[in-house]
Design brief:
Blueprint (H helix, E strand, L loop, with lengths): L3 H12 L7 H12 L4 E4 L6 H12 L3 E5 L6 H5 E6 L4 E6 L6 E5 L6 H4 L1 H8 L1 E4 L2 E4 L5 E6 L12 H4 L4 E3 L6 H10 L15 H11 L6 H16 L3 E3 L3 H17 L7 H12 L4 E2 L1 H5 L4 H11 L12
Parallel strand pairs: 1-8, 1-9, 2-5, 5-8
Antiparallel strand pairs: 3-4, 6-7, 10-11
Helix pairs in contact: 1-2, 1-3, 2-11, 10-11, 10-12, 10-14, 11-12, 12-14
Length: 318
C-alpha cells in the first residue's frame, strides 16, 4: 500500500477544494473514517456540515446517502423494509439509506427516539436487522450526523447511549473573513462539489483502516488515556463521566492521527489534541455546574491539565 500519509494528504487537499480553511476539522473527519467510527458535527446552519460529508464521500470514492431526519421519519425509512413480491411469491429486502458507505444523518435530533435508535445497531455493529434477517453494511461504513446546537424547539436530544457511539464530535465554526471571500470566489460560477473527483478508492480506505490497528501504543500511553478518562469521571462538576468506550475511542483516534502524521507510534500530544473531540460529548455536566456555566470542554481541559504526561521512551522499551 502507498504511504498512508500521502494518501491522507491527497484526500485532505481534495476536501479543502470545497471546505476552505477547515483543515483541522477535515482531518478529524478523516481520522473518524479511518477508525471505522462515526462523526457528530454540531454547529449552526450554513457552515458546511453537509458539504464536508459529501466532499469526503466523493474524495474517497464511497457511495453516499442523506437522511433528512424529521419527526415523522420511521425506523424503516432508515434501515429498509421487507416487501412481499407477488410475482415470485417471496419477501424481498429493500435496503434503506443506511446501507450506503457514508451516510449523512442530517439534523439527527429532529427524529423521535424510536427512529434515532434505528441507527444504534448500524453504528456499533455495522449491520442492520430487519424482520429477523441481518444485513451487513458495506465497507467502509460511516455515519456523519449533524445537529444545530442553538434551536431546540421540536427536537429530541440524543440520549447518552447514542452520543457514546460517536467516535468524535467536532464544531466547524464560522470561517475567517479571508476564507469567506475565498469561498465566495470558489462558488461564483458553480459549486466545486459538482466536479470533485475521487482521489482514492474505498478499498484503499479499508486498507488504511486495517493499518491503523498496527500503530504502536505504548503501555504508558494507554495508562495515560485511562487516567484522563478516570479524571472525567471523578471531576467534581461531572454527573456522568466518559465510559470505557471513550478510552477505546481515544486510543484508536490517536493511532489514526499518528498514522496521518507519518509515525508508527502514538505520542502524548496525540492524546491531548484528541481528548476533547473524543471525550467532550461523553461527559454529562451536573446541573449545579451548568448553573455556573461550566461545560464539558472546561472539564476535559482541566483533566488534561491535572493528569501528568508520561515520559517518552523508545518503542518497546521498558
Amino acid at each position: 500500500m502507498e504511504d498512508p500519509r500521502l494518501i491522507a494528504e491527497r484526500v485532505l487537499e481534495n476536501v479543502e477544494r470545497v471546505i476552505i480553511g477547515k483543515t483541522h476539522e477535515a482531518r478529524l473527519a478523516l481520522v473518524t473514517l479511518l477508525c471505522r467510527g462515526h462523526l457528530l458535527i454540531e454547529d449552526v446552519p450554513g457552515v458546511g456540515k453537509t458539504m464536508l460529508a459529501r466532499a469526503l464521500a466523493r474524495s474517497t470514492g464511497c457511495n453516499f446517502s442523506r437522511i433528512q431526519f424529521t419527526p415523522d421519519l420511521l425506523p424503516t425509512d432508515v434501515t429498509g423494509v421487507t416487501i412481499y413480491q407477488q410475482g415470485s411469491g417471496r419477501f424481498e429486502f429493500r435496503p434503506g439509506p443506511i446501507m450506503a458507505q457514508i451516510v449523512l444523518a442530517d439534523e439527527v435530533n429532529r427524529a423521535t427516539p424510536k427512529t434515532q435508535s434505528a441507527l444504534l445497531e448500524a453504528m456499533e455493529e455495522h449491520q442492520v436487522t430487519v424482520d429477523g434477517t441481518t444485513h451487513i453494511l458495506p465497507r467502509p461504513s460511516m455515519v456523519m450526523a449533524t445537529q444545530n446546537p442553538i434551536e431546540y424547539e421540536g427536537t429530541f436530544p440524543l440520549p447518552e447511549a447514542q452520543l457514546d457511539r460517536f467516535l468524535l464530535r467536532i464544531h466547524l465554526g464560522y470561517p475567517s473573513a479571508t476564507d469567506e471571500v475565498l469561498i465566495m470566489d470558489a462558488q461564483q460560477n458553480r459549486h466545486p462539489i459538482e466536479s470533485l473527483p475521487a482521489v482514492v478508492t474505498p478499498d484503499e480506505v479499508v486498507e488504511m483502516q486495517e493499518a491503523v490497528g498496527r500503530i504502536y501504543v505504548d503501555p504508558l500511553i494507554k495508562q495515560y488515556i485511562v487516567a484522563l478518562v478516570t479524571a472525567t469521571r471523578e471531576h467534581e462538576s461531572v454527573y456522568l463521566g466518559a465510559s470505557p468506550r471513550g478510552s477505546l475511542a481515544l486510543m484508536r483516534a490517536t493511532q489514526a492521527h499518528a498514522m496521518l502524521d507519518g509515525r508508527d507510534f502514538v505520542q502524548p500530544d496525540d492524546v491531548k489534541l484528541l481528548a476533547y473531540p473524543t471525550l467532550g460529548h461523553r461527559v454529562i455536566v451536573s446541573p449545579s455546574a451548568r448553573v455556573r456555566d461550566i461545560d464539558s470542554a472546561q472539564i476535559v481541559t482541566e483533566a488534561v491539565e491535572r493528569v501528568p504526561v508520561p515520559g517518552v521512551r523508545a518503542r518497546g522499551g521498558s
